[in-house]
């Protein structure tokens, strides 16, 4: 009986990632950093425009909107892998 010269490598078992080990989708980082930058820009525009922009009807609530957007971006950092 003839032996073949090619040796097959042992097949390693496939690792399946589940739960918290799954990497983030490609869009996750740009959205996370984008929200933080938009929130920061919102607050800066509010102060530079002397409380008239970005939404004049909100008046001082613009600060809360800016920090809210920033906060959502920072919350996303806890899920970043």
SSE topology:
Blueprint: H1 28-48, H2 61-77
Helix pairs in contact: 1-2
How many helices? The count is 2
Radius of gyration equals 25 Å
The helix-strand sequence is HH
Number of strands: 0
Mean pLDDT: 89
Strand content: under 5%
Query: Which bin fits the share of residues in helices?
Result: 40-55%
* SSE class: mainly alpha
Q: How does the major sheet shape up?
A: none
What distance lies between the first and last C-alpha atoms, to the nearest angstrom? 53 Å
In one word, what is the shape?
A: rod-shaped
Stretches where pLDDT falls below 50 for ≥5 residues?
A: none
Protein name: Cell division protein CrgA
GO cellular component, one term: plasma membrane
Pfam family, one: CrgA
Region (Disordered): 1-23
What does the model show?
This is Cell division protein CrgA. It is a multi-pass membrane protein. The protein is mainly α and 81 residues long. It has a domain at 33-77. It has helices spanning 28-48, 61-77.
What is the compact description of this entry?
With 81 residues, the chain is an all-alpha fold.
Task: Provide keyphrases for this structure.
81 residues, mainly alpha, 2 helices, 47% helix, 0% strand, rod-shaped, CrgA, Cell division protein CrgA, cell cycle, cell division
